[in-house]
Design goal:
The complex is a heterodimer. By secondary structure, chain A is mainly alpha-helical. Chain A has 11 helices and 2 strands. Chain B folds into 2 domains: 275 residues, ABC transporter involved in vitamin B12 uptake, BtuC, CATH 1.10.3470; 37 residues, no CATH class. A two-stranded antiparallel sheet of chain B has the order 1-2. Classes of the chains: A mainly alpha, B mainly alpha. Chains A and B meet through α4, α9 and α11 of A and α6, α12, α14 and α16 of B.
Amino acid sequence: MNLFFQQIINGLTLGSIYGLVALGLTLVYGILHIPNFAHGALYMVGAFMSYFFMVDLGAHYWVAMAGSAIVVAALAVLCERLVFHPLRHSPPIHDKIAAIGILLFLEAVVQMFWGSDFRRMSSPFTGILNFDGLIIPEQRLLIIAGAFVLVVALQLFLRKTMTGATIIAMAQSRDGAFLVGIDANRVAMMTFAISGVLAAFAATLYAPINLVYPAMGHLVIMKAFVIIILGGMGSIPGAIIGGMIIGFAEALGGFYISTSYKDIIAFGLLVLILSVRPQGLFAKGAH
Amino acid sequence: MFKFASMLMTPAAKYLMLAFAVLFPLVAANEYQVYVMATAFVWAIAVYGLNIITGFCGQLNLAHGGFFAIGAYTLGLLTADYGWSFWPAFLAALVMTAALGFLVGIVSLRLKEHYFAIFTLCVGFIIYLLIDKWEELTHGAIGVRDIAAPYGFGVVDFTDTTPFYYLVLAFLVFAIWFMGRLSKSLLGRTFIAIRNGDELAQSLGINLMRNKVLAFVLSTTYAGLAGALYAGMVRFIGPDEANIQHTFDMITYLLVGGIGTIMGPLLGTIGIVWITQSLQFLEEYRMIIFGPLLVLLVIFFPRGITGSFLTWMHRKSQALVPGKKREESKVNTVQPREAESNA
């Protein structure tokens, strides 16, 4: 039974990380209708920035996380200004190709500076909590708690502040938002910044129990896409629920079915669901 | 300048290019150059496939590299493990990629735009993972060795680089010829109609699903053809052939050359392959240049070399005819601005 709970914890951890990455992706999609293939690269840059701050500058874990969030948010805003903004009237295929261009560029730059080696990032939370035989590493607990705090903070920001409300308004109706005088540029930049911050936090939280390397974003971003398709593109609760579904499916599937095929589970699930329901599980009509 | 440029559009220019390609092994400095050119041709065939579904039909297929790998693996496994000889295995590779393309197509093409791109991204990744993990069938990370070379029925020996070069060239010429015929046919125009607008096409009585699946199967068959030739040429393949990087490379070739044009895939592929070859130090970091290049292209020259050239030619030829046509082109340039102010 303990083994089962162990997998539940693993599922929660994975689900939290996937959910955070998917949240950023779904926010950007909801506002700008861009599937940002470069989001995984932002996640990867976030991990490398934290690594850089911690190892090369000797910063504390939390400081590194904050620094990385700032850098990645700036990078995301830069992408919006330089790439997606000029393309806002182009056919949708151009956005996707441009996003792939950014992804390739960021990966190559990181690889140039740090090489393609796998690196280990330390964290001050190396302890292990033991609840009557159920072993939970502190870092995993931190991930789950961190994701929870971030999601709540994001909800408060979106529901309770004026800036947040403009983002929601724009996601609900572009034209309506323009009519009441919402500045589209500001909202777009804000959304990209939030997505960057979430990606950087997720990467910094996850890096200590995983490895840091230039291709680390590939799998995560693809799973995040699976999640937002499952949850309905642009839907915030959908991203969180979808993240948990994939996290649990992977943790339990990896344990009970096969470890070497665990990465296929998410994609297999997607193929299966889209074959039956092309609009996703929780898709809302107009969003 | 204009006169010279319009010469490039005559059929003579095409024969000139073909003549150059035929003579290339004679003027090449060494066998390696011939080999590089043959590789470029193989990739070009695959890029032509991508051009059908993405350039003509407007659906961004991110599993294209996966189908290339399926073609390569079908040929490789059949010849190395099951003792087939090259040409039957070659046909089997085409049938295999077409059949799998059909299966993937009927599921994925029910999805539109972003959903389709993301779905095919996942399909491409599933293909990669299966090749990498299904060791009983694919040998996993070890790869497939001892792939048969095409036999020349006692006339030519395709294990040599130069005869193989001509073999690839023959397939490439056929691929381009077919593409040219396709683009002028009703079917090709149907694909373009779908690219320009699903709903409009449907209201004209076009069966969206059937045509999209047809375009998809054609494109995967092209990819399979290229993959099989590739396996016959390098005779050693690994899971890396299914890496998403290859799909991204092909998108770069297509975009640089000119998406949705006839000569674009060829020009883009040959151009970039030779640039990366001559700048060997760039091999690992080439994406530092090609990544931003992709972005700049879609922003400023979304139609690539060939497309921009054709647009320029079109404007020039209209400028030579004063009066009515000029006004038409003016009207065209005004429209996007209006759309912008409405948004």
